[in-house]
């Protein structure tokens, strides 16, 4: 796709009908159960292919595991990844493992996309309605887990969302011929929305009241339970954002919360919105309308 603007994956055209999509991602455990960690890491790694309108089909494991780690644990991590890949229709054909003090796991993923169906951060148009496909707040919730302050129900909810594939959301985006989209991961909502705003040369206007959050997110935010990445994101991206003055600090910080295996952020042309929402409902894909692309620059939180 070129190296001038950040994309979710590398895309290389093979012919007029086919381009190859390649991406990789891996990280340290976000939860303390091995199977779920593997499943979340795999769902997260494949997400970038759907975020660009592609269809993943082949993957390789990348793992770094401590010497002393019991083999039951490492095999549970791999099993979580393998079952998630299978659910996606992706084959894990091999991989590579090295020794490391802290576990790391993820996938290299290869997929295909039709060159006319590529979705990118630069594809938003003024008037597009912004749709998000997963709630926010996985960063604060997993940080509450690390600080041993998490409520079991909140953790369960976060694990369920992080494990969920962006497959249906990506397929829906292709079916409706959407052009602007990305997935929400480490840079948080504001970071990824800033990339879209810049690449598309539009202002991304978000209505805070419409943002979906995991049940525990606000309470953890009020207690200041944020991962370090939230503060990095704030430092890096706050210059691009104009917050409504009524929004308090926990609310503002939540928009910088780094996400693991977050949802897709898609631009849906207004005239397609009602059909899009209808189809999403029929296929059990949750979608939240959170704002609109308007003329201008940066991010506006209203
Ligand atoms: Co991405
Ligand atoms: Co990525």
Write the layout of secondary structure elements.
Layout: E1 10-13, E2 19-27, H1 34-51, E3 55-65, H2 71-88, E4 91-99, E5 104-113, E6 129-132, H3 138-146, H4 152-163, H5 167-175, E7 181-183, H6 188-200, E8 203-206, H7 217-222, H8 228-237, E9 241-243, H9 249-254, E10 264-268, H10 273-282, E11 288-294, E12 299-301
Parallel strand pairs: 3-4, 8-12, 9-12
Antiparallel strand pairs: 1-2, 2-5, 3-5, 6-10, 6-11, 7-10, 8-11
This protein binds cobalt (II) ion (2 copies).
Strand residue percentage: 15-25%
Instruction: Look at the structure and name the CATH superfamily of the largest domain.
Output: PurM-like C-terminal domain
- Helix content percent band: 25-40%
Total beta strand runs: 12
For the largest sheet, list the strands in their spatial order: 7-10-6-11-8-12-9
Task: Flag low-confidence runs.
Answer: none
Largest β-sheet summary: 7 strands, mixed
Radius of gyration from the alpha-carbon trace, in angstroms:
19 Å
Q: What is the rounded distance between the termini? A: 33 Å
General shape? globular
Give me the secondary-structure category: alpha+beta
- For the record, what CATH class of the largest domain applies? Alpha Beta
Number of helices: 10
In the CATH hierarchy, the third-tier topology of the largest domain is known as: Phosphoribosyl-aminoimidazole Synthetase, Chain A, domain 2
Structural domain tally: 2
């Amino acid at each position: 796709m070129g190296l001038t603007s950040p994309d979710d994956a590398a895309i290389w055209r093979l012919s007029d009908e086919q381009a190859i999509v390649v991406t990789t991602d891996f990280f340290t455990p976000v939860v303390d159960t091995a199977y779920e960690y593997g499943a979340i890491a795999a769902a997260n790694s494949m997400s970038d292919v759907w975020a660009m309108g592609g269809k993943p089909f082949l993957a390789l494991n990348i793992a770094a595991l401590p010497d002393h780690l019991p083999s039951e644990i490492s095999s549970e991590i791999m099993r979580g990844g393998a079952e998630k890949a299978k659910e996606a229709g992706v084959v894990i054909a091999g991989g590579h493992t090295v020794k490391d003090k802290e576990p790391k796991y993820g996938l290299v993923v290869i997929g295909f996309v039709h060159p006319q169906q590529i979705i990118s951060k630069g594809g938003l148009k003024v008037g597009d309605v912004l749709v998000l496909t997963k709630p926010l707040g996985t960063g604060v919730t997993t940080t509450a887990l690390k600080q041993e302050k998490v409520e079991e129900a909140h953790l369960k909810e976060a694990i369920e969302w992080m494990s969920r594939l962006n497959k249906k959301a990506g397929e829906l985006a292709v079916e409706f011929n959407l052009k602007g989209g990305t997935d929400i991961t480490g840079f948080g909502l504001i970071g990824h929305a800033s990339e879209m705003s810049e690449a598309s040369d539009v202002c991304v206007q978000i209505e805070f009241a419409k943002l979906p959050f995991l049940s525990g997110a606000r309470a953890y935010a009020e207690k200041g339970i944020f991962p370090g990445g939230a503060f990095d994101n704030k430092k890096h991206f706050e210059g691009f954002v104009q917050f409504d003055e009524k929004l308090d600090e926990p609310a503002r910080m939540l928009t910088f919360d780094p996400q693991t295996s977050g949802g897709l952020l898609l631009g849906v042309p207004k005239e397609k919105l009602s059909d899009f929402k209808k189809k999403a409902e029929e296929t059990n894909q949750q979608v939240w309308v959170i704002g609109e692309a308007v003329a201008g620059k940066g991010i506006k939180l209203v």
